[in-house]
Amino acid sequence: MIDPRFVLLGAAFSLIGIFVYATLTVRGLVRPNRVSWFLWGAAAMIAFFAQLADGVGLPALSTLAFGLGPFAIIAASFTNRLSYWRISAFDLSCGSVSVVALILWLTFDSPLLAVLAALTADVIGGVPTMVKAWQHPETERSFVYVFGALNGSITLLSLQTWSVVEVAFPLYLVLLGVSLATAVRVRNRKRKRAALTDGRLVKGTDYVEPKPGN
Question: Please, which residues have CB within 8 angstroms of residue 148's CB and are 6 or more apart in sequence?
């Protein structure tokens, strides 16, 4: 195990990733799904307060960093009409189920149940972004999810005691970050190969659709 204060480094990784992602959002280079990011932030903040109630201590800062970031990204998405993903009925359905999970948290007088409810809401709320990352990887960047996974990994290594309340959220951050980063990178790589084969224009990690008639 590492010094518990290393959790501050993990939180810094998350905040750096969020800052860069928010900057790219303002520029319209990424298009966040507001449903996912709002629910990620709301669920993480619930988990953070539940961890505080359970006396988790420093590791809760990892959750706090993950919870504050999404609201910055949502705010950034309002600065450019091209910097957000259109919300569909599917997104709203996932969001509704997540909200129900968050409401259930209010009925739980237990930090453990609160964290589990928040995680459930977080997972379901993230489905729209997972689908978008797979179908439209050009609207995402993998680094923000890699940094989130680093945050979770460092937090796990810094834990001095292991309980569900302490372990659940950082472990989820690792799984979420790795899965989304992998999906974005694999799908973008596949699109690049297809684009080169078809004679389309590819620049960096961005996939550019051919103009009509090309």
Answer: 13, 14, 17, 66, 173, 176, 177
